[in-house]
Design goal:
67 residues; alpha/beta
């Protein structure tokens, strides 16, 4: 399984997120969808078993290092 980290789930990421979730099983991808809004990350994950929605603040050095 390949782990893919996506920082930001705003409008410009919609097509990429949809494509990756639609092909995650076939390609062996696990997506971590990060956004300042956990609610938005959850919405974009579409409850997929191949997505981990995560609240993320890019200014947090601790969070950046952890991911």
């Amino acid at each position: 399984m390949k782990n893919v980290l996506l920082l930001g789930t705003g409008k410009s990421a919609n097509a990429l997120i949809d494509y990756m979730l639609d092909n995650a099983e076939k390609e062996g991808w696990m997506l971590t969808l990060c956004d300042i809004s956990l609610e938005q990350a959850k919405e974009k994950s579409r409850n997929s078993k191949f997505a981990i929605p995560t609240a993320f603040d890019v200014s947090s050095e601790e969070q950046r290092e952890a991911l």
